[in-house]
């Protein structure tokens, strides 16, 4: 019985950190990444969503777009980055992110990795506390 309580508690703790609808900022052809970050968030209603960010340059005009996308579609589009991203005057770069309100960054910072580490550490600490409380 204690084992079942422990498993349910860990599953719940993980779900609190990861479950729920992803919210992406929705923008199209805005001038800067910051312009996109200032847009409101909307719930993604598709299965296995990510926030897909596209940064394009056409005839010297650059623009940022961001919206909900299926993970597989975003990952497939991202595969072209090595050929198309910032290689010419006309380019397209794609990033995929999975945190609420994210707008992909072409130069990811350590902050996003730190945020994931903190959530992982908090979940692990909660699991240990629950394990100890259950008497394992």
Description:
This protein has 136 residues and is an alpha+beta fold. Helix content is 43%, strand content 27%. The chain has helices at 2-18, 33-37, 71-78, 81-84, 110-134; strands at residues 23-25, 27-30, 41-43, 49-58, 61-70, 91-97. Strands 2-5-4-6 form a 4-stranded antiparallel beta sheet. α1 (2-18) runs antiparallel to α5 (110-134). It is elongated and about 65 Å long. The N and C termini lie close together (11 Å). InterPro entries: Snake_toxin-like_sf. Residues 1-21 form the signal peptide. Keywords: Disulfide bond, Signal.
Task: Provide a compact summary of the structure.
Helices cover 43% and strands 27% of the residues. The protein has five helices and six strands; from the N terminus they run H-E-E-H-E-E-E-H-H-E-H. A hairpin with a 2-residue loop joins strand 4 and strand 5.
Strand-helix topology:
Layout: H1 2-18, E1 23-25, E2 27-30, H2 33-37, E3 41-43, E4 49-58, E5 61-70, H3 71-78, H4 81-84, E6 91-97, H5 110-134
Antiparallel strand pairs: 1-3, 2-5, 4-5, 4-6
Helix pairs in contact: 1-5
InterPro entries: Snake_toxin-like_sf
Signal peptide: 1-21
Keywords: Disulfide bond, Signal
Key structural traits:
5 helices, 136 residues, alpha+beta, four-stranded antiparallel β-sheet
Span between termini: 11 Å
DSSP strand (E) fraction?
A: 25-35%
Mean pLDDT: 81
- What is the gyration radius calculated from CA atoms? 19 Å
Query: Would you identify the regions where 5 or more consecutive residues have pLDDT less than 50?
Result: 13-18, 108-112
- The neighbouring-strand order within the major sheet is 2-5-4-6
Share of helix, binned: 40-55%
Largest sheet: 4 strands, antiparallel
Number of strands: 6
Backbone structural class: alpha+beta
Shape designation: elongated
Q: What count of helical segments does DSSP give?
A: 5
Spell out the helices and strands N to C: HEEHEEEHHEH
Keywords: Disulfide bond, Signal
InterPro entries: Snake_toxin-like_sf
